[in-house]
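[job 4471] stage=fold_predict status=RUNNING
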Amino acid sequence: MYMKISRDTLKFIALVTMTIDHIGYLLFPDMILLRAIGRLAFPLYAYFVAEGFRYTRDRRAYLTRLLVSAVLTQVLFNTVGLDFVNVLFTFAISTCVLWIAEKGGLIAFLGVYIGVLVSIAISCDYSFYGVLMVVLFYLEGRSFIKMLAGCFLLTTVYLLATLSFDINAFIQAIQYFELNHLFFIQYLCILAVPLLALYDHKKSIYSSLMVKRIVQYSFYLYYPLHLVILKLIGG
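[job 4471] inference complete, writing C-alpha cells
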C-alpha cells in the first residue's frame, strides 16, 4: 500500500522548493542544483490553484483574493526592483479561464485562447505554460498518466516557444545536451506528478476558522515577502 501525502505536506514541499529555487535565482545563479530542485514548486502550486477553484464556495471571492494579492505583490516587487510580473497574475488568469471554460463548447475554447493571449501579452511568470498547467490539473487532476503526459507535452511546447518554435534548434539542443542541459531542467517539473499521485485529497482540519485563515493568508504573504528579502540581501 502506497504512503499518502496530505495537502499541508504538499504545500510545505511547494513552499520549500520554491524558496530554494528563488535562492538560486537571486543569490546563487551558478548553483544549478537549486534551480533544478525548484522545478517541483510550480506544478504543486498550479495543482492547488485548480483544486481551490474547484472546491471554493465563493469563486468571485477566490478570484478577487488572487487579483488583489497579485496587484499588491507587483507594487512591492516594483519598489525593490524585481522586474517580472508575479505568478499570482498567472493564477488569476488561470482562474478566469477555468470559470469561462466551464461553459463548454466554443466559449470554453475562446476562454482558454484569450487567457493564453493575455498571459503572453503581460509576460506574467510562466506565461501560457502556467495557465495551461492549471487547466491540465483541473481537467486531469486524478489521472497520474494524463498529468505526466500533459506536463511533458506542455514543457516541450514551452521550450519550443522560447526558440520561436524552431524545431531544428530544439533538435540541436538535444544533440548537444551537455552544452544545453540548463535549457532542459524545466522537464524536472514532471517529478512533481508522483507526489501529486500520492495526495490523499483530504481537507485540512484546523481548530478554528481563524487558524484556517491565518494559515491561508500566510501562504499568500510568504510569496512576496521572501522574494523581497532575498532581493534586498542580493542587492
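[job 4471] summary: The radius of gyration is 18 Å.
[job 4471] exit 0
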